[in-house]
Amino acid sequence: VQVVESGGGLVQPGGSLRLSCHVSGFAFSSYVMSWYRQAPGKVRELVARIDSGNTGFTHYPLSSVKGRFTISRDNAKDMVYLQMNDLEPEDTAVYYCNAGNTYWGQGLQVTVSS
Prior knowledge:
Radius of gyration: 13 Å
Order of helices and strands: EEEEEEEEEEE
């Protein structure tokens, strides 16, 4: 199983980024997909989760991202996305894609700074 993320980088406060994650060697549509993040000196935390299949049910445990971040998936392409709008310096972290609560990507640096 390979989990490959793309789309991180440097953005100014108030800007937007879309993170992408492609999974191969895995029954993508059958498993829950998640995005986590880890800021320096902090524990890794769940940012967003989307159910398997086509239910579309999503979960955002962090109140700080609700209304700003949106997770989505394209089962035909084995892709999951995290659209991040109105970014804040506190969103600076390494973002990780997780497949099926088991497999991790390499992580993407997201830096929000002016």
